[in-house]
Design goal:
Layout: E1 9-10, E2 35-42, E3 45-53, H1 64-68, E4 71-73, E5 76-80, E6 86-89, H2 91-104, H3 112-125, E7 137-146, E8 159-168, E9 177-180, H4 198-213, E10 218-220, E11 232-233, E12 236-242, E13 245-249, H5 259-270, E14 275-278, H6 282-290, E15 294-301, E16 305-308, E17 311-314, E18 317-320, H7 329-341, E19 352-354
Parallel strand pairs: 1-3, 9-10, 9-17, 13-14
Antiparallel strand pairs: 2-3, 2-8, 4-7, 5-6, 5-7, 6-19, 7-8, 11-12, 12-13, 12-15, 15-16, 17-18
The structure holds pyridoxal-5'-phosphate.
Residues 75, 196, 232, 235-237, 256, 258-261, 301-302 line the site of pyridoxal-5'-phosphate (PLP).
Length: 355
């Protein structure tokens, strides 16, 4: 079965909300497009693939996901090309990562034809929701959760998979001030830090809130053992440009294998820029900052794309990052990625898919 042969029942909305959206002032996650794709896992298989108007679900209060957290998600984007086509960026990688998360959380994997077939059909139906404004895109949220109405700790027998989409603008209005977290942790070896499971984000809210009360926008997580090594930042991987190299923590089971991160690594290789994927201590970064060897520090993720940090705070001291030059790596890689995603430049990597 290919993506095009998946049987999907489609019920279109008779009242589009498209006119209510101000596409020139999009707030992240505020507007949700007209339709959603749903499939149910029952009797050991995915069935009842359907597209329906976006709306409320009806759930048992005993729904397993609400109690024991068997819930995973993905985040990806579609862009509008100048020709008016909808272009998906590396969606197959999101599908693969979704299934990795599923395995770790004892959830069933999603066949490619359900994930990609449902997604493609949904994007065709809601094509008018893909913004064409500069810096805007359609954020895509696939997720799966346990639906057994059973109050006992065990893997659920039934699940629901949903995809909905939101037109979005840019994430941070200005470069964030980030604080290196040396008490709370996001993930420990052997845990679920390498997955996009719902609980990871719930656990990060309190430390992030404390940092916000101190005037920071985001955290940089450090390792659970020593709080000495940099892991990632919020929902972004972290990357540095120093001594003429691109340096980033390697991916392990405590960090998410980000698709933006690996795209940037591939582009750096393509441009002949040395790349180091390794352990990076906080001290090393602070020293490079003090010695003016750090050109930039930035977060990389689907929501933000590339987000250069304004300040890094460590042990009570705020370190300002140098002003970014027009031709800095961060600016160049952001522009190049945007050009690939919107079809403005040839996609030599084979990352985009026309819907
Ligand atoms: C989603 C996410 C990222 C970024 O991954 P992308 O595939 O680039 O969007 C990084 N870290 C965490 C914790 C995430 O949830």
């Amino acid at each position: 079965m290919t993506a095009d042969t998946l049987q999907i029942e489609i019920k279109q909305t008779d009242k589009s909300r498209l006119q209510e959206v101000d596409f020139n002032n999009l707030v992240f996650g505020r507007n949700i497009a007209d339709h959603m794709f749903i499939a149910d896992y029952r009797d050991g298989q995915w069935q009842n693939s359907r597209i329906v108007p976006y709306g409320d679900l009806s759930l048992s209060p005993a729904t397993a996901a609400l109690h024991y957290g068997q819930a995973i998600f993905e985040g990806m984007k579609a862009y509008k090309s100048e020709e008016g086509d909808t272009l998906l960026f590396r969606a197959i990688d999101n599908w693969k990562r979704f299934n990795k998360s599923a395995e770790r959380l004892c959830m069933p994997s999603i066949p490619e034809e359900v994930f990609m077939g449902g997604l493609t059909e949904l994007l065709r139906l809601d094509a008018a929701w893909v913004p064409s404004q500069e810096g805007c895109s359609l954020y895509i949220r696939p997720y799966m959760f346990a639906t057994d109405a059973y109050v006992g700790v065990k893997p659920s027998d039934t699940y629901t998979f949903i995809i909905f989409t939101c037109p979005v603008g840019t994430y941070y209005a200005k470069p964030p001030r980030v604080k290196v977290e040396t008490h709370f942790i996001r993930a420990a070896e052997g845990g679920v830090g390498g997955t996009k499971c719902a609980g990871n984000y719930a656990g990060s809210l309190y430390p992030a809130k404390l940092a916000q009360e101190e005037g920071y926008d985001q955290l940089i997580w450090t390792d659970a053992r020593e709080h000495a090594y940099i892991e990632e930042s919020g929902t972004m991987n972290v990357m540095f440009v120093m001594d003429g190299k691109l340096v980033t923590p390697f991916v392990s089971d405590t960090t998410l294998d980000g698709i933006t991160r690996k795209s940037i690594v591939a582009i750096a290789h393509h441009w002949g820029i040395p790349v180091e994927e390794r352990r990076i201590s906080v001290k090393e970064i602070i020293e490079a900052l003090k010695e003016n060897r750090l050109e930039s520090a930035f977060g990389a993720g689907t929501a933000v794309v590339v987000s250069p940090f304004a300040t890094i705070a460590y042990e009570g001291v705020d370190y300002a990052l140098p002003e970014l030059k027009e031709d800095s790596f961060v600016n160049k890689v952001k522009d190049y990625l945007t050009e690939i995603r919107t079809g403005k430049t040839e996609d030599i990597f084979g990352w985009t898919l026309k819907v």
